[in-house]
Specification:
globular; 240 residues; mainly alpha
């Protein structure tokens, strides 16, 4: 899932990567909201809260929302710099290393949240997850040439509406029938990604109610497994 890039990737590879990482992202976002009442990856909502608090002159709250947005951007920036450096040095497993980096940072975040006193726990969780969601979204955007996104649900739902409209026009003979295959493929990919995010969110909240902040370590283990599988597959390919 993390070896081939762009046009070399099949629909099945994109779908497996999207569903797996969207499930993880959904679990982390929903569990964090359940724990502290805040979405770490919802930049639309966070910018809206930023503008609302600025308008009301609640500058301390506005500053925090601005920080969340900047941290998300920072995660995407760091991810892109890492990928660019790896590609320049012909590190073919750079995307797997990027997900491995996310796994390690998520494990560290989980340990920090477990050990920090209550007053520092919520902001650390929110900011940490915002950084990691920015990092993850940049990885899948780059590796799939923007076909796959795992935390940007507003964009995915918009794409689903566009694809349904195009298929309806094709069915009515108002668009080229030859384009139907690509629109069905995109509709399937985006619908399954949203469904995976939803199911991940349900599972994340249910598991969080049982194990609490240990959920972060469990999600880190899943990401570690995904990255390790990619690196092993790359090594096997290079050995043959």
């Amino acid at each position: 899932m993390l070896i081939r890039q762009g046009d070399a990737r099949s629909e099945d590879i994109d779908r497996r990567l999207a569903c797996t990482l969207a499930g993880v992202a959904g679990a982390l976002n929903a569990a964090a909201f359940h724990a502290v009442g805040f979405f770490s990856a919802n930049m639309t909502g966070n910018v809206s809260d930023l503008s609302n608090n600025l308008a009301l002159a609640n500058f301390s709250y506005a500053g925090f929302f601005l920080l969340v947005v900047l941290v998300f951007i920072g995660g995407a920036t760091v991810s892109t710099l890492l990928i660019n450096a790896g590609r320049r040095r012909h590190v073919f497993g750079i995307y797997a290393f990027s997900i491995l980096t996310e796994a390690i940072l998520l494990a560290l975040l989980g340990c920090a949240v477990l050990w920090l006193p209550g007053v520092h726990r919520a902001p650390t969780l929110i900011l940490g997850l915002s950084f990691l969601m920015g990092l993850q979204n940049a990885v899948v955007t780059r590796i799939s040439d923007a076909r796959v996104r795992t935390t940007h649900i507003s964009g995915l739902v918009t794409d689903i509406g566009i694809e349904l409209a195009m298929l309806l026009d094709i069915a009515r003979g108002r668009e080229l029938a030859s384009d139907a295959v690509q629109y069905r493929s995109r509709l399937r990919l985006h619908s399954q990604t949203v469904a995976a995010f939803l199911v991940g969110g349900i599972g994340g909240v249910m598991i969080y109610q049982i194990v609490g902040d240990l959920l972060l370590l469990g999600m880190a283990a899943i990401l570690f497994g995904i990255a390790l599988t990619g690196l092993i597959r790359l090594r096997t390919q290079n050995a043959t």
